Amino acid sequence: MSWSALTSARSCALPVALPLAGLMSLFALGGCGPKVEDDSGAVVDTSPEDDTQDDFSCPTPEMRVNGEDPPSVGDYWEVFLWCGDTLMTGAMHMSIDPPSLATIDDYHMTYNEAGSGVLTVQVGTLKAERAVEVAE
């Protein structure tokens, strides 16, 4: 392999003083892969394709609750977001509109007043909404 093939396209030239650990980190990130010249003299990157892409998809996230459904004033719910049989974990944002309808604490909620509203739950980029009718 020629020197020009190694240094053209995505250049791998690094300062000599760069510590070995830093150098290895840069190579691990895939910034420099094997390159060869094709018949026309153009440099071609022969690095393997990135196979770290997440294959998970969730076309219809589903909100599930533990508690009386439909709720009444004073009822307590635990709310979770599911994709099929998979519980979505991580930072969760839950809100209800109007806010006075329920008190929310983490993934728990207690209904404060009768009325109707919309409950929204989001984990990462997955989001579900549900209409709720709270009885007296």
Q: What labels would you give this structure?
A:
single chain, 136 residues, mainly beta, Immunoglobulin-like, 2 domains, five-stranded antiparallel beta sheet, three-stranded antiparallel beta sheet, 10 strands, 39% strand, rod-shaped
Describe the structure.
- With 136 residues, the chain is mainly β.
- It has two domains: 3-45, no CATH class; 62-134, Sandwich (Immunoglobulin-like).
- 10% of the residues lie in helices and 39% in strands.
- It contains two helices and ten strands, in the order H-H-E-E-E-E-E-E-E-E-E-E.
- Strands 3, 4, 5, 7 and 8 form a five-stranded antiparallel β-sheet that branches.
- The radius of gyration is 27 Å and the shape is rod-shaped.
- Mean pLDDT is 80; it is low at 5-14.
Pairing-aware structural class of the strands and helices?
A: mainly beta
Please state roughly what percent of the residues sit in beta strands, choosing from under 5%, 5-15%, 15-25%, 25-35%, 35-45% or over 45%. 35-45%
Helical proportion? 10-25%
CATH class of the largest domain: Mainly Beta
The radius of gyration over CA amounts to 27 Å
Q: In total, how many domains does the architecture comprise?
A: 2
CATH level-two architecture of the largest domain? Sandwich
Largest sheet: 5 strands, antiparallel
User: What is the averaged pLDDT score?
Assistant: 80
Measured between the Cα atoms of the first and last residue, the distance is 79 Å
| Beta-strand segment tally | 10
Ranges where pLDDT stays below 50 over 5 or more residues in a row are 5-14
CATH fold naming of the largest domain: Immunoglobulin-like
Enumerate how many helices there are, as a single number.
Answer: 2
Q: What order do the SSEs take from the amino end to the carboxyl end, as H and E?
A: HHEEEEEEEEEE
Report the principal-axis shape: rod-shaped
